[in-house]
Amino acid sequence: MKRYISLLMGLLAFIPISAQQSDYYYYYKGNRIDLEVDSTRLYVVSEGMLEQQNTSRTSSANYNICKSSRSKVYNNVVPLQNERAVPPEVYFSTLEIPTGLTSDQYNALIKNVKSHENVWQVLPSFSIDGKQVNVTNNFYVRLKESEDFGELQTMAAMYKIDIVGFNEHMPLWYVLSCNASSTLDVLNAVELFRQSEKFSCCEPEFYATITYQSNDPHYIYQWNLNYTEEINGYQGVDINVEEAWEITKGDSAIVAVFDESIDTDHPDLSDNILIYKGYDISTGAIPTYNVSTNRAHGTLSAGVIAAIQDNEIGLTGIAPESNIISIACDISASSNDSVNNTHKATILQIANGFFKACEKGANVINCPWSCNAYSALLDETIGYIVNECVVVFAAGNYQYESDCDILYPASCNPRILTVGGITPYGKRVIHGKNMGSGSSSAYYSFIGSRYGAELDVVAPAVLIYTTDPSSTTGYDRDFNGTSAACAHVSAIAALILSAHPDLTPDQVVGIIEYTSKKISPDLYSYQTDTLRPHGTWNEEMGYGLVDAGAAVQIADKATRTTYLRNTVVTDTKHII
User: Which of 77, 88, 189, 497 is 20 to 30 A from 324 via CA?
Assistant: First the structure.
């Protein structure tokens, strides 16, 4: 019989802190995901702020309240009639606690915190693969069939758990909430609902860590669009975009930049940003940008995609006539998280960002980030979205060669277009390696590009010149990492769809993969793979370096010809 732990219920009087790690878990795709305990923090859910103070940091003899925030509104959850929704004054607080506590002291501290008026839940702060996550008092349940709602009501009533509502986009997914009257904390509730076998999936709601895939050391070459210079006898590589511009520059295509908010006043972007269609996943409002408080990552991505061409200033984007929608998940410059390019959001907020991008007309979604909490709800969301939009994800950056697997959620669905990064010399970006071609080119990479079975293509990922509101000039050549590579591929997808908007997302992905160039074959062996139908493939290069000119031309040719790769083509639905 499995043992379950509930700090709220006090089921066990004495548990060594070091043994708690294996007692907290959930299941993802049938596999148990262990939640590692951060014994220096507690996460508290309360009705009303834990200790009402005017300052953001209060203290007691036993702990420090280092952060407290009000519960977010669910913009995509349809509340149920006759069901009590989550009260509007629910707060989540993170408590720092002293190190070196004995088990008795640890349990006494939990009891102390639980004794506070209106405290609902006390759990440790957790981490997955070393990245912090916090479990809220909510969890998600997916019904097998809509008729199973009665089973959900019965179990919720048994444990005095609120049913908040269902996801308006995926109505089989419900949000449930443990409150002051509930007889289970959220992790125990998830496990009991899962073990009942009455539901398709049960998982806790996390404030998960979104990590943006970029790094900003300074280099000297601008090369990604048209690299004609030969250095030390070695010819550089580029994405061949000028050939694509002979056919299209992205007019009518809309790219959702799922990133930090964008500087809508930047002179090289403002005319291409659909400000009124923007959406902040945390607030539900139109995103706003302040150069003194917001980081520049979203603006960097937007500049690579859609910086305005021929306006006699700055630079040009790859799809300079396309439009941008900001789907924002911001990092405050004053936050400690900004050092690590991270931001917290619930899985439901992240999922809602994808649906909002589609609702607002995007046909490409640029995702230069990873998330450390594995979620069936997020998987299913992306499964819906890839039917409507081309979804492009950064493969992820790494610092140690032993940790270079493709990050989640880029790895969760084969219909996602997953992008790795290369240097100007056609090599995968490797952490700590010389990016030059000779002894005079001593420029070292501070990040590496992840690779593996899920990698589809590669694109430029270092020394990228783009719009940067944090720079004194408004531009800089310091956009690096697979975030930069991701933006290149999203822009090429926009070029294709601009010329041929009737193509499906899968067709666009197939065209980009099929036309990619097999660069550096002396270093990378491209092989036939039965799971890879669009040409030879390599785990470090994917199908190769994206080729904007070839991709747009073959899409254009495919709509006007009878045959493509020995296959009869009667309309664009049969491309690749």
Answer: 77
**In sequence order, which ranges of 257-415 are alpha helices (DSSP H)?**
297-306, 347-359, 376-385
CA dihedral angle for residue 337, residue 458, residue 352, residue 139, rounded to 10 degrees: -70
- Provide the percentage of residues in the chain whose pLDDT is more than 70: 81
Nearest Cα to Cα of residue 482 among 378, 386, 353, 341: 341
Per-residue pLDDT at 343: 73
Average pLDDT for 95-118 = 81
Q: Which residue has the tokens 């603006």?
A: 299
Total Cβ atoms within 10 A of residue 543: 23
Which pLDDT value is given to residue 38? 82
Given this model, what pLDDT does residue 196 score? 95
317/270 Cα distance (integer angstroms): 13
Largest separation between any pair of C-alpha atoms in the chain: 78
Residues 7, 308: Cα–Cα separation, whole Å: 56
Distance CA 414, CA 382 (A): 11
In 263-328, where do the E strands start and end?
279-280, 323-328
Output phi, psi for 25, to 5 deg: -165, 170
- pLDDT above 90 covers what percent of the chain? 52
pLDDT at residue 190, as a whole number: 96
Tell me: pLDDT of 541 over 80: yes
Beta carbons within 8 Å of 435's beta carbon, 6+ residues apart: 219, 423, 424, 425, 427, 429, 441, 443, 444, 445, 462
Best CA proximity match to 491, nearest among 280, 284, 294, 321: 321
pTM recorded for the entire structure: 0.81
DSSP assigned state of 272: G
- Cα separation, 35 vs 19, in Å, equals 12
Q: Which amino acid is at 336?
A: N
CB 22, CB 36: distance < 8 Å: no
For residue 356, pLDDT beyond 90: yes
396: CB partners within 8 A, 6+ apart: 213, 370, 406, 407, 410, 450, 482
Q: How many CB atoms lie within 10 A of CB 61?
A: 6
**So what's the pLDDT on residue 436?**
54
Considering 207-221, 349-363, 473-487, the range whose residues carry the highest mean pLDDT is 349-363
Give the end-to-end CA distance of the chain in Å, rounded to a whole number: 52
Pairing of strands 364-367, 230-231: unpaired
**Tokens read off for 342:** 């991270």
